[in-house]
Design brief:
0% of the residues lie in helices and 38% in strands. With 97 residues, the protein is mainly beta. It has a single domain, classed as GroES chaperonin (10 Kd Chaperonin, Protein Cpn10, Chain O, Roll), CATH 2.30.33.40. The chain has a 6-stranded antiparallel beta sheet, with no helix packed on it. Strand 6 and strand 7 form a beta hairpin. The two termini are 24 Å apart.
Length: 97
């Protein structure tokens, strides 16, 4: 379980690493790979309020697999593993399987 509680409309996610292999069967080294855009939602922030003071509900929940922008968010380490804290608005979509 994460030891970081995001604040406001922020979400803590962990990028999902995928093995990169070209069509010819060549594995790409880490420095040649692009940052993965799929991530798993680890925890949600404390939420926010609209102009009328009504609570804004999160669209995602912990455990969802989401698509995120490549270079958004702030990288943090949790228990030695890389995570990102991003605004919920930086989540592009929920991956349905």
């Amino acid at each position: 379980m994460a030891k970081i509680q995001p604040l406001g409309q922020r979400v803590l996610v962990k990028r999902i690493e995928v093995e990169e292999k070209t069509a010819g069967g060549i594995y790409l080294p880490d420095n040649a790979k692009e940052k993965p855009q799929e991530a798993k939602v680890v925890s949600l922030g404390t939420g926010g309020k609209d102009d009328n003071g009504k609570a804004i509900e999160f669209t995602v929940k912990a455990g969802d697999t989401v698509l995120i922008s490549k270079y958004g968010g702030t990288e943090v380490k949790v228990d030695g593993e890389e995570h990102l804290i991003i605004s919920e608005s930086d989540i592009l979509g929920i991956v349905k399987k």
